[in-house]
Amino acid sequence: MRTEIHRDSVAFQRLRPEWNALVQRSLCNRIFVTWEWQAIWWECLGEGELHLLTLRADDGLLVGIAPLCRVTGQTGERAFRWIGCVDVSDYLDLIALPEYEAALHKAILDYVTGPDAPAWDYVDLCNIPQDSHTHRALAELAVQRSLYARAEVQDVCPVISLPDTWDAYLDSLDKKQRHEIRRKMRRIEQETQTRRYTANNTNTLDDAVDTFIHLHKKSDPDKEAFMTVQMVQFFKEICRALFENGWLQLAFIEMDGVEAATMLNFDYNGEILVYNSGYDPSAYAGLSPGIVLLADCIRSAIESGRKRFDFLRGNEDYKFRFGAAATTVHNLLISPRPLP
C-alpha cells in the first residue's frame, strides 16, 4: 500500500482519469464527491491548504481518496476538513473501494498524527451520510489511538421513496396535500399560458443558468446575499460540467411568457437531488409556481424510473408535506485534546 499527500491543485488533473471510476465503485457514489464537483469547488471556493490524500494498492491501482484541506478559523483554530465543506455540498465522505475503507481510515490518522502533517486542532468532517461507515469507524479508530472523537447528527435530508406511478405517489399523501397539489396544478393551467421546460441545449445553457441565478436572488434576501461573485462563478462552472455529463436538471416554469420559478436539480446514480430553487415573488406568486414546478419534477422523476427524490439538507415543512422521510447527515470531530 502507498499513501500520497497532494498539496498542489495540479493533482486534480493528474487524478482525473481515475477519480470517478473509483467513486462509482465506492460506497459513497454521490455527486458531491465526483471529480467535477471536488475540482470545481476547490478552484472557485477553496481556502486554506490542500491535503488531498490518496491510497494505492501494491499494483498501483487507486483504491482510496480522502479529499482534505486544512483551514484556519477566525479564532485561530486549525482544522482538517473535507474539500467542499460545508455550505454547498450536501453529502461528503471519503472515497474508497469497500475492501480498502479500513486501510484508508488508518492512512488518514497515520498522516494527521505523523511527522509530515502541519499542526492542527481538529479533524472536522461535515455532512457524512447516515449509511456511511466513516463517522463510526473513523471515530472508533481515533479513540483507539488515544485521540478524542465525537460523531453527532448534523442535519436532516428528507427523501421521497418514489413508487412506480404518479397516481400511486399522490395516493401516498394525506388527503389535504393530494387535493392541494391537484388544485394548484389545475388552476395554473386554467389561468395562464404555462410552459414547463428544462435546459437541454448547450448553446443556451449559460443564459439558462443566468436566469436561474436571477430568480434565485429575487426569491429571498438571504439567497441574494449567498450569491457572491465567487458563488456565481461556482454555479456557472458546476452547471456546465454537470450538464456535459448528463447530470443536470435545470427546470423552469414559464407563465404568460415570463419565467416564474426554477429548480436546479441533479440527476445522478438513479435519483433526483433537489439542490436549489428560485422564483419571482412579483410574478404569479398567488398561483404557487414553485410548488407546481416541484410537483412536475416529482412526476417527471417517477415517469423516468427514478426511485428516490432527495430534497438534500434542511427540514423545511413542505418537504415532508410532499411525502419525504428524514434521513440524516453526521459531523465527525476528532482532536488530540478533550472536546468541549
General description of the model:
The chain is an alpha+beta fold and 340 residues long. It has two domains: 2-156 and 329-335, 3-Layer(aba) Sandwich (Aminopeptidase); 163-306, 3-Layer(aba) Sandwich (Aminopeptidase), CATH 3.40.630. It has helices spanning 10-25, 35-45, 101-112, 134-144, 166-172, 175-191, 205-219, 221-226, 229-244, 289-303, 317-321, and strands at 2-6, 49-56, 62-72, 78-82, 95-96, 122-129, 148-161, 194-198, 248-255, 258-268, 271-279, 308-310, 325-335. Strands 1, 2, 3, 4, 5, 6, 7, 8, 9, 10, 11, 12 and 13 form a 13-stranded mixed β-sheet that branches. A hairpin with a 5-residue loop joins strand 2 and strand 3. Helix 7 (205-219) packs across helix 9. The chain is elongated. The protein starts with a strand and ends in a 5-residue tail after the last strand.
Structure described in brief:
The chain has 340 residues and is of the alpha+beta class.
**H and E string:** EHHEEEEHEHEHHEHHHEEEHEHE
Distance between the termini: 36 Å
Give the biggest beta sheet: 13 strands, mixed
**Under CATH, the topology of the largest domain is which?**
Aminopeptidase
Radius of gyration: 22 Å
Q: In the CATH hierarchy, what is the class of the largest domain?
A: Alpha Beta
Helical content (DSSP H or I, runs of 4+): 25-40%
Strand runs, count: 13
Tally of discrete structural domains: 2
CATH homology superfamily name of the largest domain: Gcn5-related N-acetyltransferase (GNAT)
Mean pLDDT: 97
CATH architecture of the largest domain: 3-Layer(aba) Sandwich
What would you call the shape?
A: elongated
Structural class: alpha+beta
Give me the number of helical elements: 11
**Beta-strand content estimate:** 25-35%
